[in-house]
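User: For a reading group we're discussing how well predicted structures match intuition. Take C-type cytochrome. Before you show the prediction, I'll give you the sequence so everyone sees exactly what went in.
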Amino acid sequence: MSGQRYGLLVAGAVALACAALGPGVALMAAPAPTSAAAAYDDEVELGRQIFTDTGRLAPDYVGNDLKCSNCHLDEGRKADAAPLWAAWGLYPQYRAKNGHVNTFAERIQECFKYSMNGKPPPLGGREVVALETYAAFLAKGQPAGEHVPGQGYLKLPRPPEAPDYARGQAVFQANCVACHGADGAGQRSGDQVLFPPLWGPRSFNWGAGMSDINNAAGFIKANMPQGQEGKLSVQEAWDVAAFVDSHPRPQDPRFTGSTDETRKRFHDNPQSMYGLTVNGVRLGGDGK
Ligand code: HEC
Ligand code: HEC
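Assistant: Thanks. Here is the predicted 3D structure of C-type cytochrome, as structure tokens, for the group to look at:
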């Protein structure tokens, strides 16, 4: 590209940027950060706060009672709880779920859409940039482009016996109700969520990774019951995951208008209970 043409392009971009600000908006209106390092630190801290208090700080994009750190534990630092430091270097990455190469920013958008049952915040917007900055900060010194130990959730071996609802219910009653409640709805105190909901209208939706039994089993085996991690056997983790993921939750945002068709297109595998009937309830049933 010739220098002259480049100059024209830059001039055009500046003109566009000024036009976008609108008439009368002074370019210097935002408070200038005291230094580049302080501006960076502020952005990391904003990302950390959005990650751990998502509903309050990104309310337009959250449709349930969860926050990012409910599943990405220890503020996104805990190994085997899909830590951000292990995720950052793996993107851009092809994802079968949406059939194209996803940037890290798009991966964040997907957890808003499904796990947070909300809307994807805009690329390049306040939320996405802060969360990207936080992840990049946590990932300092990590190798890029390769899986590091602790990345994602545990990939559990198949259980000795097929996951079973009734056995899972017994595991749930003995190990989970004290915090998550007998109805799986979690516990609140006023507008504070003390323990997050595992199913029902305020939990993750049917498009979320956690609604697949294998993902939930891996998460639960490594991380639950909180404070007694590792207590459950592989079989118990699969059974209780099957139990949790056999309850109603918000509709898959990719719902085509028909539960049968939505199962066929997005849930046609043994890890998803979507579209199946459990205890007389059609999971993901039209209108639920
Ligand atoms: C209900 C649980 C849940 C919540 C809440 C949640 N996520 Fe996730 N997240 C997952 C699951 C499941 C995966 C897939 C992990 C895997 O593939 O092993 C994932 C993956 C990710 C990844 C990619 C990890 C990797 O190693 O490739 C990022 C980044 C991410 N989530 C960011 C977020 C952000 C940001 C939020 C909040 C806006 C959030 N998540 C909320 C469950 C959740
Ligand atoms: C001592 C309280 C406690 C017990 C017992 C407990 N959990 Fe949790 N659980 C939590 C907390 C707190 C979080 C959110 C983690 C955070 O924010 O650090 C959580 C998060 C979760 C999540 C991801 C977030 C969501 O809402 O879906 C799942 C799934 C889960 N627990 C399943 C279970 C299962 C299954 C059991 C029983 C085997 C269990 N938990 C036992 C406290 C508990």
